[in-house]
Specification:
Layout (H helix, E strand, L loop, with lengths): L2 E5 L3 H13 L3 E6 L2 H11 L3 E5 L9 H12 L5 E5 L4 H11 L6 E5 L6 H12 L3 E3 L1 H11 L10 H11 L4 H8 L3 H15 L7 H11 L3
Parallel strand pairs: 1-2, 1-3, 3-4, 4-5, 5-6
């Protein structure tokens, strides 16, 4: 059971998230509607994970994101799962850029993903366990945005597929299952990717963040 703080200004969605998480066996220790209340709730409750919308009052821009960054500075190791209504790559990359040096779990999902209860609860569990989980659609947008730039253009189509799954947080075994290839083939593809992109082949969150750091580089 995870102790969770929710921040979402839409009352019905906030209530729905709380009910969904309770049905999943977790405990929502606070459910708030703005960024200031989020920071106060985390300071008071010290939850296992935070689930927050990007946009909240008063300006409905990036208050939730900025609160998440503040909380990660104030409480090192705090896992945060950020929800967004649509693909907003500046928000995703801003969160990743600020959190790259921290090993704590980090997630960025579209709100549509909440509709798939099993996937959402799995993402929550993975973030709470310290993994990085990025919405597949966000990864696709990042890849498309960088597809014409070097050295990303050096990758083969299969290497691009492996890179996209790596950026979603999948390990080699999971990538092999998704692509119906052997794990040895995945290891070979990963080695090629790291070589072509000049990345350090480090396992875990740092590997994912390194890949995303390259994809968002100017």
């Amino acid at each position: 059971m995870l102790r969770i703080v929710i921040a979402e200004d839409a009352v019905l969605l906030r209530a729905g998230l709380a009910e969904l998480l309770a049905l999943g066996g977790h405990r929502v220790v606070a459910a708030v509607g703005d960024a200031r209340a989020l920071v106060a709730a985390v300071d008071a409750e010290r939850p296992d994970i935070v689930v927050t919308d990007v946009r909240m009052p008063p300006d409905h821009t990036d208050e939730g994101l900025r609160a998440a960054l503040t909380l990660r500075e104030r409480h090192p190791g705090l896992p945060v799962l950020v929800l967004s209504q649509y693909v907003a790559t500046p928000y995703a990359t801003g969160l990743l850029a600020a959190a790259g040096a921290q090993p704590a779990g980090l997630g960025y999902l579209l709100k549509d993903r909440v509709g798939d209860v099993a996937d959402f609860l799995d993402a929550l569990r993975r973030v709470a366990a310290g993994e990085t989980v990025i919405d597949p659609e966000v990864v696709r947008v990042l890849l498309r945005a960088r597809s014409a730039d070097r050295p990303l253009a050096r990758l083969t189509p299969r290497e691009r597929e492996v890179l996209a799954l790596m950026a979603e947080g999948l390990n080699n075994q999971a990538i092999a299952g998704r692509l119906c290839i052997t794990e040895a083939s995945v290891v070979k593809h990963c080695g090629n990717i790291f070589t072509k992109l000049d990345l350090d082949p480090t396992e875990g969150n740092r590997r994912v963040l390194a890949v995303l750091a390259h994809l968002r580089a100017e």
